[in-house]
């Protein structure tokens, strides 16, 4: 008996783009999400995280509803609300709160724990067998991200740590439930993304206005930032993400989320004009290896002696 590595079989992987094509397309979503930190810090008004979360969700959701011309029906009203809160309505504010209380590297590393949470939740919710292969690579990816983004002077704050872990768990549950529930027959991923983004935006509307208020002095850069977060980081990326969740194994899809902190770190280094250290390059290699290996499944094959 020898071990070989082969893609996990999936009937849907034989249709359309195929497994590799859908993996590459779905990976674009977390790659785009990796631009959120730099866009928020460089273009948006400071001190308005809830408004940023609102602008990332509600306009994009309404546009998706207008384009898809589909509203939820039956149980999908409450399912869309639950998924919208988990994937966006709770996740976005927790993400911003973690970033406010922790160095960006620490916050990103906490977010990279999401694939491990998804692997455990898949066993509980989807009744899948625990994949030691993907859990192991999830741990490798977590360490890799930590090597890339955590600096020697990183500080720790209890509120920030709880917010970061809460955000990872929130979206982890959302990803698993999205896989469990799928989407109604004949309804495309843009409509499902629109339902969730709109639900998240409506949940965030009152808190954003009461707590943050309307930012003053919104300039052209801020408008560009809001458009990027809403249209590309919200509408397009979540449409692709939910399409991928429906076609790929849920744990391997979650491992694609490692791209988000890596892209954020790469953009930070590029804009700061700083070269990555050998340790950071090692972390990049480890995280990328974990992401790629997580798309494969170990399979035993009998061979003649």
UniProtKB/TrEMBL annotation:
It comes from Mycetocola reblochoni. InterPro entries: AA-Vitamin_Transporters, EamA_dom, EmrE-like. Residues 25-149, 160-292 form the EamA domain. It is found in: Membrane. The keyword Metal-binding does not apply. It comes from the Bacteria. The keyword Transmembrane applies. GO terms for cellular component: membrane. Keywords: Membrane, Transmembrane, Transmembrane helix. Belongs to the EamA transporter family. It is a multi-pass membrane protein. This is EamA family transporter. The chain crosses the membrane at residues 21-40, 46-68, 80-99, 105-126, 133-152, 158-178, 190-211, 223-243, 255-273, 279-297.
């Amino acid at each position: 008996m020898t071990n070989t590595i082969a893609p996990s079989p999936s009937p849907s992987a034989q249709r359309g783009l195929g497994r590799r094509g859908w993996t590459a397309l779905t990976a674009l979503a977390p790659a785009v999400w990796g631009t959120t930190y730099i866009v928020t810090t460089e273009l948006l008004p400071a001190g308005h995280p809830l408004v940023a979360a609102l602008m990332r969700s509600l306009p994009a959701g309404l546009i998706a509803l207008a384009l898809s011309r589909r509203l939820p029906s039956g149980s999908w009203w409450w399912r869309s609300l639950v998924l919208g809160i988990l994937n966006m309505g709770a996740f976005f504010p927790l993400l911003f709160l973690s970033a406010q209380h922790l160095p960006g590297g620490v916050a990103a590393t906490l977010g990279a724990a999401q694939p491990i949470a998804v692997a455990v939740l898949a066993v509980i919710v989807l009744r899948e067998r625990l994949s030691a292969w993907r859990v192991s690579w999830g741990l490798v990816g977590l360490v890799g991200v930590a090597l890339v983004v955590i600096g020697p002077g990183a500080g720790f704050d209890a509120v920030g740590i709880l917010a970061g872990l809460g955000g990872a768990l929130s979206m982890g549950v959302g990803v698993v439930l999205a896989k469990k529930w799928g989407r109604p027959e004949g309804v495309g991923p843009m409509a499902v993304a629109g339902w969730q983004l709109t639900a998240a935006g409506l949940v965030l509307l009152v808190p954003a206005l009461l707590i943050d208020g309307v930012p003053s002095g919104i300039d052209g850069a801020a408008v560009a930032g809001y458009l990027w977060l809403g249209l590309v980081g919200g509408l397009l990326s979540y449409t692709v993400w939910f399409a991928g969740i429906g076609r790929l194994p849920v744990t391997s899809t979650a491992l694609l989320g490692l791209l988000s902190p890596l892209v954020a770190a790469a953009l930070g280094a590029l804009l700061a004009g700083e070269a990555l250290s050998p340790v950071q390059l090692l972390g990049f290699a480890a995280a990328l290896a974990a992401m790629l290996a997580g798309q494969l499944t170990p399979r035993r094959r009998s061979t003649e002696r």
